[in-house]
Write a structure and sequence with these properties.
364 residues, D-amino Acid Aminotransferase, Chain A, domain 1, 3 domains, four-stranded parallel sheet, Rossmann fold, alpha+beta, 8 helices, eight-stranded antiparallel sheet, 19 strands
């Protein structure tokens, strides 16, 4: 199938689609080195005015006219755009917009009897400290702890949540609008210092989750996405507490765990995603190995001077790219027979990349 994939960062989606045998045309905000091998052609996405839906939809229309695809896949930053004249392999824009609202999610989870985190639009009804988050957003960006009312600085689009302690996990799910099938449970890496991530920043995954919790979070995730009527690849994030799992959020889009899920299970996530639009769901796959991905963050602003394209790197920036302080440099991958082995390998590779970032003005 001739596909147009467009979004701020779609390397993982495009490479999965390429491995499934599709003709992939991409419009991406980074055009990383490893994306070249996955795409028939690659165009840099202009981010000017992307915050306005009209401009985003105009850009998508321009690229549809240029490429002439059989279908479009909208990636990060564009999942809520409305597209006309060609099939769109995403959840409907209206549904994506509604579900991306964390306040709406919390209320929906409560109404439907799922464990949720109490969420409000002010700190008045919660005991301090509280978690402050963007009402819309991903990757832990903008999350912080408010210790008291004096720490509150309410801006537009913020919510407050009670603080829940637990192990961060996710479930990758394929849904056809009625039924759902979990592909894998994953450990989430959050704010790991060895990656350079700060605060609550998402910095990777380990698949499968080890050890599995007593509660069947895979079945719970299936029930959630099926009841929401989602289609394609979706994810549910959890905190695994001493009292049981609590749902953090539902992500109605491809997840950052795609690479580790494919490596650990042997399933092509894009093909499973595509089949779901035809009403076909996969069987729950067996785990073949343990796989990990870690996102490495820059300790300082720098210019990329040389290629860092190794067999175990992904999202590799081009020489000449400027990486801002605390922004992602690239991802490192590893696989092995268990979590300890994979984490050790990821940490070694992260150390190699971070060693290359030393120096006041360059990364080599």
């Amino acid at each position: 199938m001739k596909l147009l994939l467009i979004g701020i960062n779609i390397r993982h989606i495009a490479c999965s689609a390429c491995r499934a045998g599709h003709e992939v045309h991409v419009v991406d905000g980074y055009c990383d080195l490893d994306l070249e091998s996955c795409a028939l052609d690659m165009t840099l996405l202009s981010r000017d005015g992307l915050d306005g839906s009209n401009r985003a939809e105009e850009l998508i229309s321009e690229h549809i006219e240029r490429v002439g695809p059989q279908a479009v896949v909208l990636g990060p930053g564009l999942e809520e755009a409305r597209v006309k004249g060609v099939p769109v392999l995403n959840n409907p824009a209206e549904k994506a917009a509604r579900i991306s609202d964390k306040l709406w999610q919390a209320r929906w989870l409560e109404r439907n009897g799922f464990p949720f985190i109490r969420t409000v639009t002010s700190g008045e009804d919660l005991d301090f400290p509280v978690m402050i988050k963007p009402r819309r957003g991903a990757g832990g960006v903008g999350c912080r702890i408010a210790q008291s009312r004096s720490d509150l600085d309410w801006g537009e689009g913020l919510i407050a949540q009670e603080i829940v302690s637990g192990r961060a996990a996710s479930v990758s799910v394929i849904c056809d609008g009625k039924g759902a099938r979990a592909l894998a449970t994953n450990e989430q890496l959050i704010g790991e210092s060895w990656t350079g991530a700060k605060g609550f920043r998402y910095c990777g995954n380990i698949t499968p989750l080890e050890p599995l919790p007593k509660s069947d979070i895979a079945s719970m995730a299936e029930r959630i996405v099926a009841r929401l009527g989602l289609v394609g690849s979706n994810g549910v994030d959890f905190l695994l507490t001493e009292e049981g799992p609590v749902v953090v959020e539902v992500n109605c889009r491809f997840q950052g765990s795609l690479d580790t899920v494919e490596c650990a299970t042997g399933v092509n996530v894009f093909e499973a995603h595509l089949n779901s639009f035809r009403g076909l769901l996969p069987s729950r796959p067996a785990i073949q190995c343990t796989a990990g991905r870690a996102i490495i963050y820059a300790p300082r602003s720098a210019e990329i001077k040389e290629r860092m394209l190794f067999p175990w790197t992904a999202d590799v920036p081009r020489p000449g790219s400027i990486i801002g302080r605390d922004d992602p440099i690239l991802s490192v991958m590893a696989k092995g027979s268990n979590r300890v082995e994979v984490i050790s390998c990821l940490q070694d590779r992260a150390a190699m990349i971070r060693e290359l970032t030393k120096g006041p003005a360059k990364i080599i």
